[in-house]
Automatic annotation (TrEMBL):
This is Cytochrome ubiquinol oxidase subunit I. Belongs to the cytochrome ubiquinol oxidase subunit 1 family. One of its GO terms (biological process) is aerobic electron transport chain. It is a multi-pass membrane protein. The chain crosses the membrane at residues 20-41, 53-71, 91-115, 127-150, 184-205, 217-236, 326-350, 362-384, 413-436. InterPro entries: Cyt-d_ubiquinol_oxidase_su_1 (IPR002585). Pfam families: Cyt_bd_oxida_I (PF01654). Its main location: membrane. It is found in: Cell membrane. Keywords: Cell membrane, Electron transport, Heme, Iron, Membrane, Metal-binding, Transmembrane, Transmembrane helix, Transport. GO terms for cellular component: cytochrome complex; plasma membrane. It comes from Candidatus Chlorohelix allophototropha.
Amino acid sequence: MDALMLARWQFGITTIYHFFFVPLTLGLSLLVAIFQTAYVRTDSDTYKRMTQFWGKLFLINFAMGVVTGIVQEFQFGMNWSEYSRFVGDIFGAPLAIEALLAFFLESTFVGVWIFGWGRLNKRLHLASIWLVVVGSNISALWILIANSFMQQPVGYTLRNGRAEMTDFGALLTNPNLWVQWPHVFTAGVATASFFVIGISAWHLLRKKGDLDLFRKSASIAMATAIIASMLVALVGHTQAQHMVQTQPMKMASAEALWNSESPASFSIFTIGDENANKDVFAIRLPTLLSILSYNNTSGEVKGINDLQTEYEKTYGPGDYIPPVWVVYWSFRAMVGAGGLMIVLSLYGLYLVISRKLSTRSWYLKLMLVAMALPYIANSSGWIMTEIGRQPWIVFGLMTTEKGVSTAVGAESVLISVVIFTLLYGALAVVDVYLLAKYARDDASAKPENSEEADLVGAY
């Protein structure tokens, strides 16, 4: 492999690993804040123990997310220096604001929340966890402002071979941002909900420990799971319609649509020949893709072959087709996992309402396995988003090939890939060990002075 391919593998490996933690941090901070709000309003000891139990798991996940996230920004300078030089004027402001404002806010109030138990009054202490929720999600917003420029460049001018910012407001109002961020936020809430349901299911199956805590946790998480899962699908649909307009090659690849169709058919199952740019075998539903893309039965969806011809006229000779099979199957993995989440959470809500949740052991066992569904959906969605944009690193402006560092050899990148892979593997073992250790806690009532020690230990 050359330096370009190795740099792409390294970024993919480290980013997917980091993205395991981000959605759970976004969503679990919200659920912990909801549990603590219920505690402050009702003075119920069960809600207090719920806040502390899930708060410990939130802190472990938050810490791992911070550790793995730092590496991402270092890679821009090490392996992607040409890219950094090209977008530095654009990325500087949002990444600086994310670090100095949002992450500072988030980290500061995480500390206030940990050490504030018993020292702050209840309402001030509650405010600290809500500020963590705000900081976490604003942090994600600024990262997505930068990413949205890669998907849909706005507010810039090209000068001296660089993209220079001319309109900061355009970055904030980038249409891609306002279909992408809601998708990430709702996916985070769905991830956290399934996480809480899965661990609660394990305790309910054992029938030991503080079962009232886990029944209430599962009930609240079931309600947030169905709301968040349905909203993910809804905003995902909006995002897909935006993609048809701004990155039609990504949608054509996600549907293995080789030639333009009007009305366009939706692929149920396709085996394609990427060398010949055609189907080998396909089952398609007529007209459905046009309905999904335009909310009517007559819209044209452009195909891969026609877009390749169009892009060659616009950008010059080259291959503008991403790896179709990767985009096609990652799209289906995301949608399939998301669909299962909706079905499972709908049935779970029925069990909660009919007070049968604790008696359906087969469903509780299934929800243990279902904890993996949001992670499958999140990772495959990210892969589709980033691979589907190829060969562009900044759509229409810079190819990935031109963004790699020219002064870093393949041997150096290979060494760093091996080191990061081993290091992240070790971190994965530590993370699973810590999460399992604290998740197995039966959360029975403990002495009052154990609260802070537990939270600090988890962090």
